[in-house]
Each structure stands twice: as C-alpha cells, then as structure tokens.
User: Which sequence fits this backbone?
C-alpha cells in the first residue's frame, strides 16, 4: 500500500472515529500515530513523532498567549464588567425601538474586545440582557436569538481564541490576524444592528413598547465603561502599535484585569482561585487538542496527502475564490456535528498548503475560516452558543428550538458577511501592514 493510500485511509478513519463520538484529540493523535506506524513500519518512529509533537507544539513562546488571554477573559467575565457595559449602552438607547437588542450587539462587541471567547459572551448576556429585553416588551425568541447570534463576535473581534489557534496551526502572525479581525468584526456587528433596527421599524409588534427600562437606572455611572475600554485600549493598542507582542499583551491584560477586579471589589481570593482553575482546565483542553493536531499535521505531510490535494485543486481550475467557497461550505457543514476548535484542527492543516499554492493571503484565509467555523455555533444540531443560552435560561422555560429560531436570521447574516469577506479580501486585510 503506498503512502498516499495510507494517508487517505487515515483521514477516513479520523472522520469515522469523530462521527462515532471519539474525542477529537484522541481520534487525531491515535489514528495519526497508527498512520505513521504504517508509513514507516516502525512503531518507535511513531512514538518519536508523538513526543516531538507534545513538546514542540505547546512549548513554543507563542503558545503562552492562550492561557494568558483565557485568564484575562475569565477575570473580566467574573468581575461583572460585561453587565456594566450593557447597562450603560442600553441606557443610552432606551428610546430606540429594538434598542436593547442593538445594545446587546454593541455590548457583545465591546465585551469581545476583552474576552475572545464566544461562549463567555453567551453565558454573560443570557442572564443580563434577555430579562431586560423581555421585560421591555421584546418577543422572547428575538431576545434569546440576539444574545446567541451576537455572541459569535467573541471569536471574531480580537483578541480571539480561534485566531490564536489558527496562528499556532499555520505558524502565522497573531498580531496580523488580530488586525484582520477588526474589519469583519465591525461589519458583522453593524449588520446585526441594522437587522434589529429594521425589525424595530417595520415589525414593531415584536417590540411591544418603547424600551423605557434601558437596562440601567439614572444613577448608573458612565465611568463604569472606563475600565473595560481602558483594558481593551491597553491590550489591543499595545499589539497594534508594536509596543507588546501578543504574548506580552496577554500577560499585561491578564494582570490588569485581575487588578481591576480586585480594586473594584468584584472578586476575592475564592473567585480568583476559581478563575485560575478554570484557566487551567481550558488551557489543558486546548493543549491536548493542539498536540493531537500537530501529530495529525506531521502524518499528513509525511504521507503526501496535502501535496496530492493541492495538485488536484490546481489542476481542477477551481481557483482561489472557488476553493474558499468550497472550503467554507465544508466547514459550515462540519459545524453541525463538531465544535469550533475541532473543525479548525481537522481542516486547517489539510487546507492551508493549498491556499499557499493558490496565492491566498494567510490573514484572508484565517478570517474566512473563523467566520465559517462560527456559523456552526448557531446551526443545529450542535449550535454550541444556542445550547449555552438555553442552558442559562432553562429555568425560565426557554426551549432549544426557540433559541435556534431566534438565531437563524443571525446565521444568515453571517453567511452574507462570509461571502463579502471572500469576495472582498480587503475587508480582512485592509488594516494589515498599515
């Protein structure tokens, strides 16, 4: 059996294992190890591949950005700064029909500039924004759909854990990817806001009355916005000006977030310990996935599968645009059965060499990948953001189907933004190199 056949059989085996419910990291590492063994005929060499992947992939300086940004995001989430942000923005939009929905989108955008995790946004704003919207007269399916839909901004607007993961998988610049995320993130937030404004104007029955509650009373101090805006300016400004590397920015941001949380008396030693433990759990899970993906990438390269697929893509005449649309469709379909990180770990090592041969900019490809992956957060049966919102509001009688229905228009908007980014690369690459 030749190397290519072994490589393709390994891909098939990984797909079957994942579909059967095997953890993605185990499927990637286990079957890739067997593939290397079959390719070389030496089990010892397979173990060496595993050992190298386990050390080189997560021992790199760049990987330090993962736990640091996770720590910063959890500290911000625990300190209640997301609640403060929503309260102030909602107050300023109290007379805008559908304004609380737009305030939720804007709050998610601001919150995303600190946390970088969609699930954190979904969990926070389910408890904060949905009750305010429903009490102000917004139909509940619109309220829960808005929270689920706008939560995806957490993985698009930098700092984004998915963009960091993409940078690790492709050995590309985290800073450039962060810059690339600004344009698509702002565009998506704008489109979400326009959609809700359109509903408020032309379907007013979905918002039974003016949003007089506003999410905050007259005594809510606007100065509460300063900590989260200052933290975002410190971290992202430091990266974009070149004053910090992304890893250093993560360290500075994590330290600043903890200092703010303690200074505002939002957390104590017990909460700080819980944040540290959660950071460890998330980082360990990401490490396990990256090690599996590293073994998988080495096996693919050794088998010659990426080169074979690249030759097919070039010979087919599909072109860069055709490839990006096809890749996005595959990724979006995988989003119905896999979580975001797992999709990237399976698809990016195989697709990235093809994009290099087709002349696709790495930042452009990275943002297309992240947007396509994020669509899966809102689509059944495994729409993770939808499940988080439903779980947070289960005691209020919110059903899963209700959240999926409310989030469906946001998923369609994401498809439109994805097409725009594919067709107009400058949306993602315009800020890079300025």
Assistant:
């Amino acid at each position: 059996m030749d190397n290519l056949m072994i490589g393709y059989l390994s891909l098939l085996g990984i797909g079957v294992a994942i579909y059967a419910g095997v953890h993605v990291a185990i499927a990637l590492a286990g079957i890739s190890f067997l593939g290397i063994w079959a390719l070389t005929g030496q089990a010892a060499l397979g173990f060496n591949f595993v050992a190298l992947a386990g050390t080189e992939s997560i021992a790199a300086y760049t990987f330090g950005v993962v736990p640091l940004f996770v720590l910063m995001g959890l500290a911000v989430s625990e300190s209640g700064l997301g609640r403060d942000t929503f309260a102030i923005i909602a107050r300023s939009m109290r007379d805008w029909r559908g304004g609380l929905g737009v305030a939720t989108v804007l709050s998610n955008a601001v919150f995303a500039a600190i946390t970088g995790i969609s699930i954190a946004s979904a969990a926070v704003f389910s408890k904060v924004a949905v009750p305010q919207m429903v009490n102000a007269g917004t139909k509940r399916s619109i309220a829960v759909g808005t929270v689920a839909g706008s939560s995806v901004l957490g993985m698009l607007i930098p700092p984004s854990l998915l963009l960091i993961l993409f940078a690790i998988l492709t050995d590309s610049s985290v800073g450039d990817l962060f810059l690339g995320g600004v344009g698509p993130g702002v565009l998506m937030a704008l489109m979400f806001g326009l959609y809700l404004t359109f509903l408020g104007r032309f379907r007013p029955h979905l918002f039974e009355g003016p949003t007089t509650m506003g999410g905050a009373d007259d005594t809510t101090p606007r100065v509460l916005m300063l900590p989260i805006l200052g933290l975002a300016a410190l971290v992202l400004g430091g990266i974009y000006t070149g004053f910090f590397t992304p890893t250093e920015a993560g360290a500075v941001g994590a330290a600043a977030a903890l200092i703010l949380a303690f200074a505002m008396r939002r957390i104590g030693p017990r909460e700080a310990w819980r944040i540290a433990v959660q950071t460890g759990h998330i980082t360990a899970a990401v490490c396990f996935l990256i090690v599996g993906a590293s073994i998988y990438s080495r096996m693919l390269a050794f088998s010659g599968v990426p080169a074979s697929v690249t030759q097919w893509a070039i010979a087919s005449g599909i072109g860069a645009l055709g490839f990006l649309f096809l890749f996005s469709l595959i990724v979006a379909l995988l989003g119905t059965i896999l979580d975001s990180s797992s999709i990237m770990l399976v698809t990016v090592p195989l697709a990235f060499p093809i994009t290099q041969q087709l002349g696709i900019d790495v930042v452009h490809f990275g943002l297309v990948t992240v947007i396509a992956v994020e669509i899966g957060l809102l689509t059944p049966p495994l729409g993770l953001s939808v499940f988080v919102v439903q779980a947070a509001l289960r005691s209020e009688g919110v059903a899963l189907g209700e959240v999926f229905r409310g989030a469906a228009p946001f998923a369609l908007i994401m498809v439109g933004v994805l097409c725009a980014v594919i067709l107009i690369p400058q949306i993602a690459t315009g800020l890079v190199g300025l």
Q: What stands out?
A: Residues 3-429 form one domain. The radius of gyration is 22 Å. Confidence is low (pLDDT under 50) at residues 209-219.
